[in-house]
Amino acid sequence: MDQTGSRDLDDDAQVHRMALEIADLAAWDWNLTTGQVRWTRRHYTMEGYLPGEVVPSFEAWSRRIHPDDLEPTLFAINAARRERELYRAQFRVVWPDGQVRWCQARGRFHYAEDGQALRMVGVMRDITELHRAEALQARLLAQKDVLVGEMQHRTRNLLGVVRAIGRQMLSLSDTPDALWQRIDDRLLALARVQGLVSGAGQAIAFSELLSIELGAMGATLAPPHVVLEGPPVRLPAALVQTLALVIHELATNALKYGALSHPAGRLCVTWDLMGEGEAQSLSILWRETGKAAPEPASQGYGVRLIEEALPYQLGAVTRLEFGAQGVSCAITLPLGTRPQA
Length: 341
Known about the structure:
Layout: H1 3-22, E1 26-31, E2 37-39, H2 41-46, H3 58-62, H4 67-83, E3 87-94, E4 100-111, E5 117-126, H5 128-172, H6 176-200, E6 203-205, H7 206-216, E7 226-229, E8 234-236, H8 237-256, E9 266-274, E10 281-289, H9 301-314, E11 317-322, E12 327-334
Parallel strand pairs: 7-9
Antiparallel strand pairs: 1-2, 1-5, 3-4, 4-5, 6-8, 9-10, 10-12, 11-12
C-alpha cells in the first residue's frame, strides 16, 4: 500500500472516531475466534470504568449489567447471531458507586462462508435521561387518568344533586316564578361551594364553608347575632357538596322564618372533633334561639336532606327539632370510611 492510501485509511478512522464522539456513542469490536474485544474510550466510561482500567472483554462488559437484565440481553445476542439479524437491546448498567444507568445497544455479526460467526461490531448509547423522561410521562398520564376519572365522578354526583333539587322544588312550588326562585337559590349555593372546592383542592375548612353560606344569605357574621365556634377542621371534598346544601337550607330557613328573621333572634353553630383516624367524626350543633319554630306541616326539601340524604349518602347521624325557642339541628358526620351514595 502506498503512502497516500495509508493516509486515506488513517483519515477514515479519524472521521469515524469524531462521528462517534459527536453522537456520544460507545463502540465495540468483538473477535469471536480469538475472544479479543476492543472498546472505544466512551465504552469504558459508559460501563463505569476508567479508560484503560480493565482489559476489554465479554466478562468485563457482562459483570456491569444489572442482574435482572443480563439473561434477556444474552438471549437477544444469541438470537441475533443465530437468525443473522440486527442485535438490539436495552439494559441497565450498575456502576461501582451504585448508580444505575440505562443503555441501548445495536450490533451486527459477520460470518465466514461456512456460516460461522467470526466477528461482532456495534455501538451503544446512554439513554438514562430519555428513560427517565418516558417514566415521568407515564406517571403523568396515569395521574391524568385518575384526575379525569375523579372529575367524571364528581360531575355525575353534581348532576345527580341538580336533578334531585329539580324534582323536589317542582313538588314544592305553586308557580313558575316560585319554582325558579327555589331552584336558583340552591344552584347558587352549589356554585359557591364548587368555587370553594376548586380553590382548596382536597380539603375544605368547615368554618369557611359556614361563613360563605351565611354571608351569601346576608347574615351578619358577628356576635351576638351569629356565633361560630369550633376547632380548625378540614373536610374532604367528597363531603362538601351535600353538607353545603344542608347549611344552605338551615340558613335559608333561619333568615326567612327563624332566628335571623327577628331582631332578638340568635344563631349559634358549634362543632368539635370526636375519635381518631378512620373513626374520627365531626359533631355539629346548629342552635337557634329567640324565635319560635313550629313543626312544619309537611316534610320539605331541607328536612329530607338532613334526615334522609345525610345518613344515606355520608353515614351521618342527625337530629332535627322544632320548638318554642327555635330550630335545633345536631349532626355527627364520619370523616373516615363512609357508605357510598
